[in-house]
Amino acid sequence: MQHFDLAIIGSGSGNSIIDERFDDWSVALVERDPVFGGTCLNRGCIPTKMYVHPADLASEFEDAGRLGLTLARGRADWPQMRDRIFGRLDAISRGGLDWRRRSRNVTVFDGEASFVDEHTLRVGDKQFTADKIVIATGSRPRTLDVPGIEEVAHRIHTSDTIMRIDELPERLVILGGGYIAAEFAHIFTSFGVEVTVIHRSDVVLREMDEDIRSAFGEQLAKRVRLRVNQQVAAFEEGPAGDVSVITTDVNGVEYEYLTDLVLVAVGRERNSDMLALDAAGIGVRANGQIHVDAQQRTNLPHVFALGDVSSDHLLKHVANHEMRTVQHNLLHPDAPVSSDHRYVPCAVFSKPQVAAVGATEQQLREWGRPYVKATQRYADIAFGWAMEDEGHFAKLLADPHSWHLLGAHIIGPQASTLIQPLIQAMTFGLTVPEMARGQYWIHPAMPELVENALLGLLDAPRPAELERD
Ligand SMILES: Cc1cc2nc3c(=O)[nH]c(=O)nc-3n(C[C@H](O)[C@H](O)[C@H](O)COP(=O)(O)OP(=O)(O)OC[C@H]3O[C@@H](n4cnc5c(N)ncnc54)[C@H](O)[C@@H]3O)c2cc1C
Asked: How many CB atoms neighbour CB 24 within 10 A?
C-alpha cells in the first residue's frame, strides 16, 4: 500500500499548507470536486465579491438624487459578467490543479476520502496510509426537505450554482436571513431583479448587534420585499411554468410567492459526514463539527482539522489562520502554537455593508459585564456630509475600567475597511484614549467615523455603579 508523510483532505485552505518547506515530505492531496481550490475561490467569498462590486456601482443611482445628481439605473450584462468572473477564477483553479499535479512530492487523488482506520484513507478503490492527516473538508449549503421541491428542482439554486446561471431571472425568491442571503439580495436587486427575501425568524443577520441588525433589516426592506416569520411549507409548479413558493407564518396563515428562481440560503452543513470518522475514532459533535483543541488537533494526535469543518467561525480568514497553525505544528511538533480566536471579525458585503468584531451589546448585557457605548453617525462626520449619508453608524462598546474595546460594529459604506483599526486595537490591546488621541486621523477621511466614535466612548455615560466609585 502506498504510504505518505502527510495526507490532506480538501483542496481549499488545506492546499495552502503545502509550501516549499514541505518539499521533502511526500504528500497526498485529496479533492472530490472536479473544481480545485475550495469554496472561497470557486463558489464563495471571491466570486460573490466580484458580483458585489458591480452591484455597488449599479445601485449608486439610488443615492445620487440626494447629491443633486441624476444617474439612471444601469443594465447588467449578466453573461458578460459571469464569463469575466469565472473566466478568471476557473483559470486560477485549473492552474492550481495543474501545478499540484506537476509537483514532484505531491500526489493528487480525485475522489471522496474516507477513513479506513487511524492511518488509512480510502479514495474510490484506492487505499493509502499517512503518518499525519489533515481534514480540511469545509462545508456545503444546507438543503431543504420540503414537499414539491423535486418537481421544481431545475429552478432551485444554492450559492454553489446561482452565480453560474445563464441569464438573470425577472423574479428571485431568496430563502434565508444570514449573510449569504443578504449579499445575494444586494447583487440581484441591484441588477434589476425583483427580489423577495423570506426568513423564518423575526430578524435578519441575527448574530449581529441588536442596533445594527434592526437598522440593516429596515434598510434591506426598502430595497427588496422582505418577509420575516415565515416558513416554507411547499413548492409547486406555477401557472407560467414558474415556481410557487408556499409559506406559512406563526399563526398558520398561508402565503404564496410566484417566482422564476429560488435561492436556498438557509445555512451550511459541515462536510464531516462522508469521512467515516468512526472508523478512526475521531470525535465529532452532533452538528458535524469535528472536535479540535487549540493546536487544531483532533482527539488523535496525528490528525488535525481546520476551517469550516471544525471551526466555530465559517469564515475564510479563520480557515487561513487555522491553516497556518496546522502548518506550523506539522513542521515544528516540539514547539506547537495555538490558534487565536479572541477577536474574529466578520463582514457582510451587502447594501449597506456591515462589519463587526467582539461582543454585541446584547451579549454584554447577558454576561452582566459593565460597558460604556458610543454611537457615531456617518451623517455627523465631514465625509458623511459629502455623502449626505442617511442611516449609517458605528457603535463601539468598551470596558469602563481598562478602556479596552469590547466590541465594534459598523453599518454603512466601507464598513469592512473601517473596522480594521478597531480589530488591530483589540488584538494588540490598545486602549480607547491611546487610539483616539495617540495618532493622527486624516481629515476629512472616513476613518474620522472611528475617531469620533472612540472620543464618544470617553464622554459616554458610565454605568451607575462606577459613577459612585
Ligand atoms: C457564498 C459564500 C460567500 C462567502 N463569503 C465569504 C466572505 O466574504 N468572507 C469570508 O471570510 N468567508 C466567506 N465565505 C466562507 C468561506 O468561503 C469559507 O469559510 C472557506 O472557504 C472555508 O474554507 P475551508 O478550507 O474550510 O473549506 P473549503 O474551501 O470548502 O474546502 C473544502 C474542500 O474539501 C473538499 N471535500 C469535502 N469533503 C471531501 C472528502 N470527503 N474528500 C475529498 N474532498 C472533500 C470540498 O470539495 C472542498 O473543495 C463564503 C462562503 C460562501 C458559500
From this structure: 8
